[in-house]
Amino acid sequence: MIQIDQWLSILNKTFEDLEFPPLYRVFQATTYFNDELQIWYETTKHEINNDWSSFCDRLKQY
C-alpha cells in the first residue's frame, strides 16, 4: 500500500507538472479519499482553509 508521504509527493509533482492551480489542489486531492478520510477532512477543513501546504501537513499528522 502506498504511504501518505509518497502519495502526496506524487500528487504534488503531478500538480506542478500540469500547472494545476493551487486553489483547486485540496479539493482535487479529497476526491480520492475514502469515507474515513472524508470525515477527517470535513472536521479539519476550516483549519486548512484550502491551503495546500497546510493540507499536506495536517494529513501527514493524521
Question: What can you see in these coordinates?
Answer:
- This protein has 62 residues and is mostly helical.
- The chain has one domain (4-61).
- Helix content is 76%, strand content 0%.
- It has 4 helices and no strands.
Radius of gyration, whole Å: 11 Å
What proportion of the residues form beta strands (DSSP E)?
under 5%
Order of helices and strands: HHHH
Largest sheet: none
Number of helices: 4
Secondary-structure-derived class: mainly alpha
Percentage of residues assigned to helices: over 70%
Distance between the termini: 17 Å
Number of strands: 0
Structurally, the number of domains stands at 1
Mean pLDDT: 95
Query: What would the principal axes of the Cα set say about the shape?
Result: globular
